[in-house]
Amino acid sequence: MTRILPLLALLGPFAASGALAQEPAKEPAAAKPAETFQAPVKNAKGDTIGTIAIRDGANSLVLRIAIQPGGLPPGWHGLHFHAVGDCSDPKFLNSKAHVNHDQSKHGLLNPDGPDEGDLPNLYATQDGSANAEVTSETPLTGEGGLKDGDGSALIIHANEDDHTSQPIGGAGDRVACAVIK
Q1: Is 163 in contact with 118 (CB distance < 8 Å)?
Q2: Which of 14, 104, 113, 145 is the most exposed place for a label (fewest CB within 10 A)?
Q3: What is the residue-wise DSSP string for 62-86?
Q4: Which of 43, 32, 65, 40 has the alpha carbon at shortest distance from 135?
């Protein structure tokens, strides 16, 4: 104990002056506000049947889909991000294949997947309306983002996606589309 007391006596002036005090904690950097995006969802006739709203955060993108009554046939529908923001043809083929920068296999349940365009299925009620909120690691902006040079599209398919079979999980025809640019 006699050795500690002289040491404490020696350190006392330094502690009082703040020489041993830790540097004050820096304020955390202000979080970048989430980027948002909204677009109409259109059917093959070009009629607006609903909307999408996207919020892009630091770790994931949140996609909210609202389809009005009569917008879709009742039941499950595959939902994917496609590589080009073009819904100008009635079969929505101008939107090309899924967003898939790293050439992963299709399917949320595929051990070699999923690709960046894979999303959970969307369920339309008996009146044809649907409301869902899903997340994706695919960013809205930046490297590999949905709003790249040619944009992307959210495609709703006629059938549900089985999340394993290639190339689109048996989801069938494209029945609705929203441009993301």
Answers
A1: yes
A2: 14
A3: EEEEEE-TTSS-SEEE-EEEESS--
A4: 65
CA dihedral 7, 8, 13, 15 (to 10 degrees): 120
How far is CA 12 from each of CA 1, 8, 15, 23, 137, rounded to the nearest angstrom?
Answer: 16, 6, 5, 18, 53
Enumerate domains of the chain plus CATH numbers. 35-180 (2.60.40.200)
Output the pTM of the full model: 0.80
Q: What is the pLDDT of residues 103-162, one digit of tens each?
A: 888 889 888 889 888 999 999 999 999 999 999 999 898 888 899 999 999 999 999 999
Q: DSSP string of 16-45? A: HHTTTSPPPPPPPPPPPPPEEEEEEEEETT
Amino acid at 137: E
pLDDT digits (tens, 9 = 90+) for 30-54: 556 678 999 999 999 999 999 999 9
Beta bridge partners of 55: 36, 62
